Structures are given as structure tokens and as C-alpha cells.
Amino acid sequence: MVALTFLRDLRYLRRTPLALMGVVGIFSLVIIAIFAPWIAPFPEDAKGATHIENKFLPPSATHIFGTDELGRDIFSRVVFGTRISLSVGVFAIGLSLFIGVPLGVIAGYLGGWIDETIMRITDTFLSFPPLLLAMAISVTLGPNLLNAMIAIAIAWWPWYTRILRGEAISVRERAFVEAARAMGASRLRILVRHVFPNCLAPLVVQASMDLGSIILTSAALSFLGLGAQPPTPEWGLMISSSRSFFLTHWWVVTFPGIAIFFSVLSFNLLGDGLREFLDPKVRRRLAR
What we know:
Distance between the termini: 20 Å
Strand content: under 5%
Largest sheet: none
CATH architecture: Orthogonal Bundle
Oligomer: single chain
């Protein structure tokens, strides 16, 4: 059964090239992040080593992405930056889900004053643009990468609460939930065994697409000096520290920017593919 499901999923991917591109892109990012110390030709440059005598070397066989204002190999720093960006995305999404999912399920299933209280707090957070809220929290907590991840998570959890609330309201009226309630199942058991599993589809799609947005937000915070600090090889920080040299040495910001673009695009394509894959109507059409 598992093998048949896997083959069916592969057939779906083959018929949706954009989703396949997203999967391949994310798989490539994960491989690069895992094997960064072996892929990077100058791993010490990602840890803060400087070589002033090699500054602003253009792309070549030795430094395929060139070097920056301190003579550091840009390719090595971009490779290690992949590990940082994926870590930020996973941590921020995980913390956002940890906060937002239980609140959304509880609000949607229980309703009443509990629902009103949770949703009014959620609406308060949603009234601020995520980037602006993350900037304000980062300034309050202090500029470093960990605080930036916490700030992004605090800015993102309300979206999952609202999504899960809507799904829980829909699921709680279905026959199998009524049957479980009639059999004497506790509220906690119904929430964990029946309501939450049936709310996962939109949650998975939203989380996969938000990973790209979070990587972009993290890069923006680092660009503004509110995230990663030197000499961390974070893509946004690399662009920020080299932006004044862009007109004369184009490679110093071009390749970190391409890395951000590729990451965000890959997660967006994956999210679109998952949305179609989890839609029964689309799956039946593609299966023909």
C-alpha cells in the first residue's frame, strides 16, 4: 500500500512540473545545508576569516562567486548561509505552529467566550504587518539571530490560529465528531483524535509557503541590522554589508540575492504543488 501511494505521488509530481521544481529546489537546499563544510572550498571564510589581499576578486575558477570587501569567498559564505536560513525558517515555523495551532483548534471547537477572547488577541496581532511587528520585537529583544527568529514567530502565529479556527469550526459539525461525542469521548480526545488531524491539509500548505516568506523576512531583518550580526554568513547581512560596493563589484550582492530568490521560489512552488495535491478534485483530474 505504501509503495502504491509513493508511485501515485511520483506520477502526480511528473504531471505538475512546477511542484517537481519546488521539491528538487528544496531537496538541493537541504543537501547543501547538511554538507556545507564539505561543499564550501573555504569554510574558514564563513567563520570570520579575512584575506584583505584577496578583496573584490571577480568570479573565477578559484572563487566562483568572487570575494567580498574582506577577501572572503562568497560561494563558501552563501553555502553556509543556506544552513542558517533553513534553520531560521524551521525554527520560526515550528514556534509559530506551537503557539498558533492549539489556540486555533481550541477556539474553533469550543467557541463561546473562549473563541472570542482568543480571536480578539489574534486580531490585535494581525492588525500589524508581519515585518513591521517583527522589527519592533527585534528592537525590543535586541539585534541577534535568535531574537529575530522569536520575533518572526510572534509575528506569524496569528495566521495559523485563524486558519485552524476556521477548519475546526467546519470539522466539529461533521458526523464522525458527533458520533464520538455521543459515545462519550472527552473534549480533549475529540480535539486530538478527530478535529486536529482533519485540519492538517491547509496547515501544511500554508506552512510550506510561509517558509519562503520567513526566509525573506529574516534576510530583511538582517539587512536592517536587527537579525544576524557580523561575521555570520547570513544572506541578508551579506547584502547589507556589501551594498555600497554593488555598482563597482556586482557579484558581492548578486549571488546572495540569487540564493534568497531561489529559496523563496522553491518553497512557493512546493506550497502551490501541495495545495493541488491535497485537493481531491485536482488529484482526480491528474489521475486520469
